[in-house]
């Protein structure tokens, strides 16, 4: 992947089909690594400055010290210096989809007796006891 990004970065024809912004954003994960890329999102390239959103201020402070190394790695991955500086901003955190934590409806007292199937009745009563415990 790194070779493909480098070839696109060095190609004169790449400017016609892919912008420098798209190249810099595509090279971000390769330049910083998967662990840092999980907490950051490159947003845009403004002139020669890559704007990157981070999850919190602690990540911003840590990456602020590494800006020079990041710019050097981006130039190495792209094959030419497209990015001259990195601007770090605290963005909104990405949240994974979650599960509902509270039950949808309340279970009735003694409702298992109304269920004709004995196995389902026992399962119902067990889940009711588990909820009220």
Descriptive account of the structure:
The protein is an alpha+beta fold. The protein has 2 domains: 2-90, GMP Synthetase, Chain A, domain 3 (2-Layer Sandwich), CATH 3.30.300; 106-133, no CATH class. It is built from 7 helices and 3 strands. A 3-stranded mixed sheet has the order 1-2-3.
How far is it from the N-terminal to the C-terminal residue, by CA? 54 Å
Tertiary shape: elongated
Helix content: 40-55%
* Spatial strand sequence of the major β-sheet: 1-2-3
| Assembly state of the chains shown | single chain
CATH top-level class of the largest domain = Alpha Beta
Quick one: how many beta strands? 3
Radius of gyration: 26 Å
List the helices and strands and how they pair.
Elements: H1 2-10, H2 14-17, H3 20-32, H4 34-37, E1 40-46, E2 49-54, H5 57-64, H6 67-78, E3 85-90, H7 118-132
Parallel strand pairs: 2-3
Antiparallel strand pairs: 1-2
Helix pairs in contact: 1-3, 3-6
Structure at a glance:
With 133 residues, the protein is an alpha+beta fold.
Label this structure with key terms.
elongated; 7 helices; GMP Synthetase, Chain A, domain 3; 2 domains; alpha+beta
